[in-house]
């Protein structure tokens, strides 16, 4: 449903995820934390890492359906 493509921005990926609200919200949190750190406007801190990790975990934890597909 989403694949890495050279040249796409994080905002392009957010647009793709709009139809998946849980993943959209999780990835949006990661982006909100990542961008200011990446572009030097904010230092990386443990609380920011925790916020990004929580966003990732919120949006991208495997579901029971994912586990069945791996079998």
What does this protein structure show overall?
With 71 residues, the protein is mostly helical. Helix content is 68%, strand content 0%. The chain has helices at 10-17, 21-38, 46-60, 64-70. Helix 1 (10-17) packs antiparallel against helix 2 (21-38) and helix 2 packs antiparallel against helix 3.
- In whole angstroms, the N-to-C terminal distance is 19 Å
What's the total count of β strands?
0
Shape verdict? globular
Strand residue content: under 5%
Number of helices: 4
Which series of helices and strands comes N to C? Answer: HHHH
- The amount of helix comes to 55-70%
Largest sheet: number of strands, sense, barrel closure? none
**Segments where pLDDT lies below 50 for 5+ residues?**
none
Find the structural class using helix and strand composition: mainly alpha
Using the CA coordinates, give the radius of gyration: 14 Å
Mean pLDDT: 86
Q: Summed up, what is this model?
A:
With 71 residues, this protein is mostly helical.
Main attributes?
single chain; 4 helices
How would you summarize the topology of this molecule?
Elements: H1 10-17, H2 21-38, H3 46-60, H4 64-70
Helix pairs in contact: 1-2, 2-3
């Amino acid at each position: 449903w989403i694949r890495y493509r050279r040249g796409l921005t994080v905002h392009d990926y957010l647009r793709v995820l709009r139809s998946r609200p849980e993943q959209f919200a999780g990835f949006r949190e990661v982006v909100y934390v990542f961008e200011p750190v990446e572009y030097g406007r904010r230092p990386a801190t443990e609380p920011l890492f925790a916020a990004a990790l929580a966003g990732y975990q919120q949006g991208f934890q495997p579901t029971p359906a994912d586990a069945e597909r791996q079998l």
